[in-house]
Predict the 3D structure of the following.
Amino acid sequence: MAAPHRDRHVLLLDLSKSMLAPLPEPEPGKPERQKIEVARTAVFRILEDAASTGALFGLVTFTETVRVPVPLGEIHRENLPYIENLISLLTPSGRSAIWDAIAVGADLLRSGTEGVRGNLVLVTDGWDNASSRFDVRAASDAPLPEGRVDLVPYVLPANSRLTIRLIGIGNGAERDKGVDSGRMHQFLEQLSSRAGVLGLPPGFSFQEVSTGSALFAQMVNAFIDVGYEGDQPIEELHPEELALHAANAARALKEPQQHATVSRIKTGGNAVPNGDSVYTEAPTLEVDVLTSAGGPPAYLKERYGPLGEVVEAYLRGDYETALELLAQSQGVVPPVTRLYWEARVQFARRAVVEAARALLQAWNEAEKLPAPSQAAIVRRLALLQARMQNDKETETLVKFIDQTEHGLGTGAREGTRERLMDLFAKLMELRGTYQLTRISGTDDLQDAAVKHEEAVEEVFGMLQDARLDLATGGPVVEGALDFIEICLAEMR
């Protein structure tokens, strides 16, 4: 009998002297905390979760020297006090051997002929200034300093199944004033390129943070991940499944009156710009659903505050308590989030009218948000509305667009996200010309059909250009382009 799968996580924590500096908070009057204090608190939370779920966890710390205070292994609850005491004694000093630390983290996740497998998370506020063995090329064909080993192939050998999340503190505009964002992007670009060559799923992202709450949230979210209900990564869809999904979604594009929710979806210019922070202090719509193979994630209350209590009540089926808690959180939880969850809870308790009313109010609140914040939130609302209306075609379309953006991460090649979201937007614009062919009179029918076919051909041309330009984008990009092409074929 095969051993049960267990998640494997390694955290690489910068302990250079600059980690003693404070991090501001956006809320007036909230005290500043040292970077290392915030990071320690996040590690304690991550350890608690690992002890509860049975995930394997390891900790690598680095200054100019790389150390492994917690080897990769199971975290037993009875050992938590010892490990937490060990972590509380970690004191920042010296410089940063970032590349050497990443190599050591990969070694912990190395699994024989299966390559490097697991989740590698780096937290740093600086530039690599102390690595002695490994380096990252300034460009894919640039030479390495004499005696250095290329980090990219070392970290990502064949057959690997690796996610790498880089969390950088500061804006990186000046040396020693924050993370070296330029080099981090070079590293991720080379990882993505190698993954494409090897046919491996890309899972690399870079996130800058500038407040204590953002650092804590990004560290915890990197380990305690919350997926979407029924989520199946694009890279795991077989060609026949992909074709079935696309053909199903095309029906939502061909029947505007029956799938009106699609017209609300915002893509293209409303997407988060590539390379910009996806973390924001502004109101955001929290996770779509909080279930996974191992049950609901731990520490909902600690992660999401008042909203976590609502979700805990929702997951155990105590809908009345969930509604009471939502009402009490009115001044704390952002309106769009509160109304979204009210709609979910009401729908779960089969109060259809109340659910529809709450969702309509959530749409109205979402329209008030800044444009860059709207796209993902609107898709979340559209997904809920599709479920409430049992509109499987719209649900499939929205989920695929959402999965595409989610799967690209922040490490996507410059312009890739915008290119794909623009194609999705053009695809949805075809609903209008397709509708003309359905409602035109006998005299106008031929003209309407010609205009629709011309519009389809224009998007086909854009698609083929994108295939050439994004040829090494990886399975998420390829899957999205295949999906769009099948939808276009169905729209003829």
Remarks:
- Residues 269-295 have pLDDT under 50 and may be disordered.
- DSSP finds 17 helices and ten strands in the chain.
- The first strand starts at residue 8 and ends at 14.
- The longest helix spans residues 442-469.
